[in-house]
Amino acid sequence: MSAPAAERGQWSSQIGFILAAAGSAVGLGNIWRFPYSAGESGGGAFVLLYLVCVLALGLPVMLLEISLGRATQKNPVGAIRAVRPNGPWKLLGYLAIATGLGILSFYAVIAGQVVAACVDFTQRIFTGRELFHSFGPTASIFFFALFTLLTVLVVAGGVQRGIERWAKILMPMLLVMMLAIIVRGLLLPGAGEGVAWLLRPDPSKITFEVVLEAMSQAFFSLSLGMGAMLTYGSYLSKKQNVLHCGGWVVFFDTLIAILAGLMIFPAVFALGQEPNAGPDLIFRVLPAVFGEMVGGTAVGAVFFFLLAVAALTSTVSLLEVVAAYFIDERGWSRTATVWAAGAVTVLVGLPSALSWVSADKEFFGWMDLLWVNLSLPFGALMLCLFATFVWGLRKASDEITSSSPEFRWMAPTWRFFVRVVCPIFIALILLTRFVPVDRLLRLLGGGT
Ligand code: PHE
């Protein structure tokens, strides 16, 4: 049984939705993953591909997810069932739920490390000493479980009280802190090289792997491909403008990613570090930058606190997808659902927490590959096919136009992207992961 709309909760205003959705989008994806991906994938060329993916694939899928959520006012499984009650399509909904838990299980590990960094800097303000000489397995598990607990507590509070309130106050503060850190980094001698490395594309760096990474990063950063935006869209009222909402979220998210790049790479080059240090890039570079700042310890404490909050508004959306399903479709209470999901997350995430502190981070890498590089693009691809062949793109664009009349003239282009551009590109890029590229080209060319 579905819960009646009144019990599901709605955003108090359009700005409430934008902040909450931007809160979901902006997080470790922008500040932790974007720089390390760019660092491993060659800088400027990656950034350029990323921007292309955001505009050509991210924006269309964003509008699609929000509109399907708002049209059906349901969680991912419910939304698909509302359009097509029987048949295999609902598996796509279940995949979304599984992906939500899968991402949460390793994302909260990094978020835990962020909290630990915040605690560490705070302690240094008072004692002048470092708390963690090394961040070992026990600390990793402890902070991971702690962060999952925080997420559970916020989601238990429900959509408006829990999610909206946080996003409204702390997101703007994060932006201000980032700007301050960027300015400090840019003033370091040799910083210009990092700016050039980040913004000047070197075409020789473009490989199929880099393209797949740029696309996955775009979906991950925009919280697309696993029903988070769909679920948030389902709490949007019929009066609120889907086009503006989606557009602002994409804009904010991209802005923060680029700013994160500017925060990290000038410092990387100025301080003689390596851009391709891998997943712990920011944890190596930022403390070094704070070390160069007046009052750097306090800046570090505040920055990592705000980053932890940004991560929390993202983990909240991951858990909310899972919660919405059990509440709407299974009639579970919100409290029971979030505690159970939190417990499952901690269990599933244990290997990731252990792997994060190991030398090669192998298991962690597998999780990232499975959920971010494969599941999100696949989810986005299937959603485009679902909208094209089952829901009907006409209905989808009418849903958007009903509250955004200016969308009328963009609708044909949007439908073309959802029907043709997104599926073809996502499918081809995903295929490059499994089929060697020269074979793929031969198959496409019809040769042998
Ligand atoms: N977009 C979030 C970030 O950048 C991560 C996320 C992915 C959240 C998918 C929800 C769904 O940190």
Reading off the top of the CATH hierarchy, the class is best stated as Mainly Alpha
Gross geometry: globular
Major sheet characteristics:
none
Sketch the topology as an H/E string, one letter per element.
Answer: HHHHHHHHHHHHHHHHHHH
Can you give the mean pLDDT? 91
CATH-level-2 architecture: Orthogonal Bundle
Number of domains: 1
Low-confidence stretches: 1-6
Distance between the termini: 53 Å
Short structural description:
With 448 residues, the protein is mainly α. The site of phenylalanine (PHE) has 15 residues, from helix 2, helix 3, helix 10 and helix 14.
What this model shows, in words?
With 448 residues, the chain is mostly helical. The protein has a single domain, classed as Orthogonal Bundle (Hydantoin permease). The chain contains 19 helices and no strands. It has helices spanning 5-8, 14-25, 28-40, 44-72, 76-83, 90-127, 137-156, 159-187, 191-199, 208-221, 228-234, 242-270, 281-292, 296-330, 334-356, 362-391, 393-403, 411-434, 437-444. Helix 5 (76-83) runs antiparallel to helix 6. The protein is globular, with a radius of gyration of 21 Å. It starts with a helix and ends with a helix. The model is unreliable at 1-6 (pLDDT under 50). The structure holds phenylalanine. Residues 24-25, 27-30, 103, 220-221, 223, 226, 228, 314, 317-318 line the site of phenylalanine (PHE).
